[in-house]
Amino acid sequence: MEWTRDQEFSLKSLSSENNVFLTGGAGTGKSTIIREFIKNQEGVAVLASTGTAAILLGGRTFHSFFGLGIMEGGTEVVVERALKYRGIVQRLRKTKTILIDEISMIGAPELLTAERIARRARANSAPWGGLRVIAIGDFAQLPPVVRGEPGNPNPERPWCFLTDTWRDTVFDSVVLREIVRSRDSDWNQILGLVRWGELTEESYGVLKSRVGAVPLQFQGTRLFARRNQVESLNQDRLKTLPGAAREYNTIYMGNAQRLDELKRNAPIPEVLLLKEGALVMFRQNDPEYRFVNGTLGTIRKMKDQEITVELLSGKTIELKPATYGLQDAEGQTVASASNFPLNLAWACTIHKAQGATLDRVHADLRGVWEHGQAYVALSRVRSMDDLTLEGLSPQGFRVDPAVRDFYSSLR
Fold first, then answer.
1. What's the pLDDT score for residue 39?
2. What is the helix (H) or strand (E) element at residue 207, kind and residue range?
3. Would you state the torsion angle of the CA atoms of residues 156, 157, 161, 163, taken in this order, to the nearest 10 degrees?
4. Which one of 1, 207, 330, 397 is most buried, by most CB atoms within 10 A?
5. Cβ distance 217 to 279 under 8 Å?
């Protein structure tokens, strides 16, 4: 595989002994770099901010690794509770490096609490008790979840980069600047303006020119802000295809108590309903690089243990079932889900599309409410020609000033 100069430099930085913050806009290859780095690493705990991200990455959640739970009782209570568990103390003492993916979704209280647990568990007063920390993500994309109080629906985001913990970690910041997802320079320039909330009248006009009804015979994915719109459209479109749907039941194995968690977070449904002619999305990165998470295709033939998918590029894939594992805090697989790594792809939520490369998109941005949400939706495609829009909302292009200031300091 060919690496850009940015990517080669980032891999060298990750191979050092320093703490590293690896960042960059959508499509700069952060996920590819993670996969390459962790191939032959020992003593690295791969952590993710959400259960779905952890399953796709083959790692653990940040919360389970540090014993944070849902942070009930506040920092001091969580720290004392975590340190009572011998397993937490033992794994922190034997771990050399933690790699945290999607760091933007880790809130300030969680980061502060985890660092304090690590320092005390390792009986070492250095930041993180001497653990090496690699943080990967883009704060200009989806932020940590926080609930607004009545009368304050837009509370301040608890960005972890604003904490003393972040400052004391002393990261080598590596910024990926070259977009590898898209070779459309005009489109990349517009995405850069969207990312920083600096849309000009001209660039906003370009986006408005993409607004219209769903193109006739549209073969692509519609992105929505809300999940109920997605489920309804996918099932309605499946019903329009002739014949009966074929059911592929996901096979679950493992700890009964963890299966519910796996079912909530696995990128595949409990029952995959498919018909010939159905538009589907691949939900894994192929080790042979035939497809990536988000690649679209059409079902052409279905057997018990093999499905033929024709990609939008015209290439045909003979697909076998895949297995997704849920790891416990110790890194042991405690539950698994096996089925074809596919979802119906006529529609998808913007949140679930983060990290995916989609071949064609028709996005409804009228209902976006979150900082970075419009940027995530727009940056899924390789070219402006692959994008049409149902509508725009000016508030969807807001960027938190704290994020803009933070990245200005990195430049």
1. 85
2. helix 201-208
3. 60
4. 397
5. no
Instruction: Report which DSSP code applies to 171.
Output: -
Express each pLDDT in 365-411 by its tens digit.
987 888 888 999 999 999 999 999 999 987 778 889 999 999 999 86
- Do the beta carbons of residue 82 and residue 117 sit within 8 Å? yes
Nearest partner of 61 among 106, 13, 18, 7, judged by Cα: 106
For residue 83, the model assigns a pLDDT of 95
Which DSSP string corresponds to 54-72?
HHHHT-EEHHHHHT-TT-T
pLDDT at 155: 57
- Cα–Cα distance measured from residue 169 to residue 114, given in angstroms and rounded to the nearest whole number: 12
> CA of 115: how far to CAs of 126, 170, 267, in Å?
10, 13, 30
What is the rounded distance in angstroms from the CA atom of residue 32 to the CA atom of residue 46?
14
User: For residue 107, what are its two tokens?
Assistant: 């809130």
Distance CA 194, CA 209 (A): 16
What SS3 class is residue 323? strand
SS3 128: helix
Each residue's pLDDT tens digit, 260-290: 889 988 899 999 999 999 999 999 888 787 9
The pLDDT mean for the chain works out to 91
Angle CA(228)–CA(107)–CA(354) in degrees, nearest 5? 40
Q: How many residues does the chain have?
A: 411
Judge contact between 117 and 129, C-beta under 8 A: no
CB atoms closer than 10 angstroms to residue 365 = 24
Q: How far apart are CA 129 and CA 120, in angstroms?
A: 7
Q: Are 295 and 359 in contact (CB under 8 A)?
A: yes
Q: Retrieve residue 368's tokens.
A: 């976006």
What tens digit of pLDDT does each residue of 326-375 get?
988 888 899 999 999 999 999 999 988 888 899 999 999 987 888 888 99
CA 135 from chain centre, in angstroms, equals 14
Q: What do you get for the CA distance between the two ends of the chain, in Å?
A: 28
Q: What pLDDT sits at residue 150?
A: 38
